[in-house]
């Protein structure tokens, strides 16, 4: 059973099996004159990443770069543990995210408060990253992959500690969670939906749109989503985020007005109904809720948080 699948020239995706879900969270390995790994998922995925390296005949000493798109635990939670097995890798992270991985106590506290008893099963251990291995991925800075470069870009919207990584060799971008989440299980059933990822607590719709407009201006051949994998051409993802964002914002206002004491629950109901209607209009009548539930709930929390705090920005 192969773990690493080639999805563009010398670019491989590894399914992290995040939370036991197939094709939920992707880890990328780029194998050129230089070798890079982009995102790690949680520490639970680290054995799979090491197995994928073996499969691709990449020695652990040969990995040059470990890069995270942002410091949410489903992207960076395993970085500290993985780095212990990659003695020569330099670690790249957004300047606003670095301190949370060097000292992960805040990430750990907030995950414990959200996930309680499940914390150990989902995330443990979260290993601190030694400061001397960290390089800040400044906007418009470059690293060499051999004949061509990777370029880092500051792309807020989903989070303020979010970078995207442009691959010159293939005119592609690793976009993390900035231009939505897709659902391969639904795509395979004929329903190709991409939902904006508006999770707490730094979601900003204007910044998200600016980041998407930036991707669009580069006329990329394809993008690689954190959840999940390749969108080629990328236009569909941009269109979907632009379709759903005004609906999400409008429903948030409605939920806060109708249920000021429990706006997240109300918003979740409203969004489920909107998505179910959209699915039906697009001819999809299969199971929907189980596939989108966790995203819709977390996105609802982020939307309500955005409305509650946007006056402070
Ligand atoms: Zn994510």
TrEMBL record:
InterPro entries: Metallo-B-lactamas, NDM-1-like, RibonucZ/Hydroxyglut_hydro, ST1585_MBL-fold
Name recorded for this polypeptide: Metallo-beta-lactamase domain-containing protein
SMART domains hit by this protein: Lactamase_B
Residues covered by the Metallo-beta-lactamase domain: 24-227
């Amino acid at each position: 059973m192969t773990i690493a699948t080639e999805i563009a020239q010398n670019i491989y995706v590894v399914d992290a099996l995040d939370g036991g879900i197939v094709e939920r969270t992707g880890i990328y390995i780029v194998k050129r004159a230089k070798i890079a790994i982009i995102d790690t998922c949680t520490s639970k995925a680290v054995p799979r990443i090491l197995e994928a390296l073996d499969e691709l005949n990449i020695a652990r000493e040969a990995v040059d770069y470990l890069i995270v798109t942002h410091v949410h635990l489903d992207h960076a939670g395993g970085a500290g543990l993985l780095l212990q097995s990659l003695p020569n890798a330099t670690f790249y992270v957004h300047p606003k995210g670095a301190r949370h991985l060097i000292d992960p106590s805040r990430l750990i506290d907030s995950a414990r408060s959200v996930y309680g008893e499940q914390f150990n099963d989902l995330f443990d251990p979260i290993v601190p990253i030694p400061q001397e291995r960290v390089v800040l991925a400044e906007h418009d800075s470059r690293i060499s992959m051999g004949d061509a470069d990777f370029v880092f870009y500051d792309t807020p919207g989903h989070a303020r500690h979010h970078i995207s990584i442009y691959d010159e060799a293939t005119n592609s971008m690793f976009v993390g969670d900035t231009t939505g989440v897709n659902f391969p299980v639904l795509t395979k059933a004929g329903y190709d939906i991409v939902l904006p990822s508006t999770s707490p607590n730094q979601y900003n719709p204007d910044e998200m749109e600016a980041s998407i407009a930036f991707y669009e201006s580069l006329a990329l051949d394809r993008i690689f989503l954190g959840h999940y994998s390749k969108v080629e051409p990328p236009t569909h993802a941009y269109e979907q985020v632009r379709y759903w964002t005004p609906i999400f914002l409008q429903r948030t206002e409605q939920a806060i007005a109708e249920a000021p004491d429990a706006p997240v629950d109300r918003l979740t109901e409203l969004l489920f109904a909107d998505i179910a209607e959209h699915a039906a209009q697009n001819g999809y009548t299969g199971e929907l809720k189980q596939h989108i539930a966790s995203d819709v709930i977390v996105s609802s929390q982020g939307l309500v948080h955005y409305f509650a705090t946007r006056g402070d920005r």
